[in-house]
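Incident review: delayed structure delivery

Summary: a single-chain prediction request sat in the queue longer than the usual turnaround. Root cause was a stuck worker, restarted by the on-call engineer. No data loss occurred. The affected request and its eventual output are reproduced below so the record is complete for anyone auditing the incident later.

Affected input:
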Amino acid sequence: MSIADRLRRLTAAPLLSDPRLLLGLWLLLAVLAALAKMSPERCNNYLIFEGVFRHASHGLPLYDYYPSEYHDHNLYGPFFALLIAPFALLPHPAGLALWAAALAASLFFAVKALPGGRGMQVFVWWFCAHELLTALFMQQFNIAVAAAIVGAFALVEKEKEPWAALLIAVGALVKIYGLAGLAFFLFSKHKRRFALWCAGWGAGLALLPMAAFGPQYIAEQYGAWAACLADKNSLNAGSLMQNISLLGLVHRTTGLQFNDLWLMAPGAALFAAPYLRRRQRQHLAFRFAFLASALLFVVLFSSGSESSGYIIALTGAVVWYASAPWKRGGWDAGLMVFAFVLTSLSPSDLFPAYLRERYVQPYALKALPCALIWFKLSAEMLTRDYAARPCPTPKTSEPR
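Output delivered after worker restart:
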């Protein structure tokens, strides 16, 4: 029995595939992560998030450094001040715990909304559990970005474009990765309606903070956000904790310095090329492949990618593996094992510290398995037929 068959049988077990059990597991991971990071010295990112609402409430700059409150500074859009408000208004322990639970629940239910059988959903919930914990320890919005992209795809498939547009707008106004949800525009049966809802939600939500904090103040903060992102992009190359992407992998392993557009432009072309296979768009498996590609692409081709962002990419890797209408072979299973070991486990104590500090971090090797998966996925999307395969009928012996 192949590894894929063993995994399929294991995740099909009634207890292990029960969504209620798995939701409980994901929420338990959120609670454990919150408890582990409850002290102010260990939850710096959440302190930044609380500070976004507090500073906006007092008309203070959202992108300045506040060393007496926390390290580093805010990188999320002004709309985030409203999104974090219900959590920031609570006492710190409760707010942090509920924030972590909300992040975990957002991705869980986005995956649960995906069309098709339960197998892919269960595979994501189990395979990505450790990476979810890594992201929860950092308290960052990347989990919700994955939820927004996956949820937008699911809603487009269900012809609920207004709600898909809402998820895209929320994701993009906090972290521009959310724009990846627009990759599913060509799959919509109501493209004009989808475009109008995207424009409407985008404009409405962008202006909404002005009602709470004042038009001039928020307009200034949008300008400061753009400048902050531009400055951050130039600083990412020198940080071991940033640019953990295909871009960083190439720069660090070759030692060459060049404009990232030399990689991003061909990458974008390769990402978009499968759109030309119009006949394949009718197949759900092909559309799933685009979802996988979008989830991988936004992480692999961003200089701002960090370890906690790989909850997005690994979700894409599972969708790639589980949605193919053909039987995956040993090499594909090997890539998934490689991704789990090097991408998911490498930041943890389960991975040898010497290898992590000597090789994985300096050379951004966390990105390598996902890069290999994305290139293989891109080749499949350009060459394979995604039509659903009929189940083979058992052979019957002929009468004598």
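Verification: Residues 3-8+39-383 form one domain.
Action items: add queue-age alerting; document worker restart procedure.
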